[in-house]
Write a structure and sequence with these properties.
This protein has one domain (10-169). The chain is 74% helix and 0% strand. With 173 residues, the chain is mostly helical.
């Protein structure tokens, strides 16, 4: 008996779970609450950049943690297609509400390039979070603010760790 249209393969379900995790803001609220009151940064900018960083970290983690898995490309493709569709809807809604044309998927792609370029320029970094934190803080408007650096690093480490744990537990082989 074949699968019905509503049944998802384990790979499709994993991509959906990772997508839902990437856009969930529960942990972002906690990270924002942890941003030190003396941070020399615009908190609205941090609140805008954190969800972008989380989405990027989930997508990056898929490729990083299952680099040699035969299903890596398919899982990554499904995930990023879901992010593109989500971003398109968000862009359309924002456009209707504000009259401004914002391509959120392009913003995500630009930030991803920024973070990947920074990691490529720092191949000797002990771990990616050492590079991501300052880049995040720079995107927020103050590369030198240690509290914002720590905030970006904290979200990156927690998100990457969650994705790694999930990919180790889920049965995709």
């Amino acid at each position: 008996m074949g699968k019905t249209e509503t049944e998802k393969s384990p790979l499709q379900q994993a991509a959906e779970n990772l997508f839902n995790f990437a856009i969930d803001r529960t942990d972002i609220k906690e990270v924002m609450l942890g941003l030190h009151e003396q941070a020399d940064i615009n908190r609205n900018t941090v609140g805008y950049e954190l969800p972008l960083l989380k989405i990027i970290t989930v997508g990056w983690s898929i490729s990083y943690f299952i680099n040699h898995a035969p299903y890596k490309n398919e899982l990554s493709k499904i995930f990023w297609n879901s992010i593109r569709e989500f971003s398109q809807g968000l862009s359309e809604t924002t456009g209707l509400m504000t009259g401004a044309d914002i391509d959120f998927f392009q913003v995500i792609k630009d930030r991803l390039s920024m973070y990947v370029d920074a990691m490529n320029k720092n191949p000797d970094a002990k771990e990616p979070a050492v590079v991501i934190g300052p880049e995040f803080s720079d995107a927020c408007g103050n590369r030198e603010d240690v509290f914002t650096v720590m905030t970006g690093s904290r979200l990156f480490i927690a998100t990457a760790g969650s994705v790694k744990s999930y990919l180790e537990e889920v049965k995709l082989r």
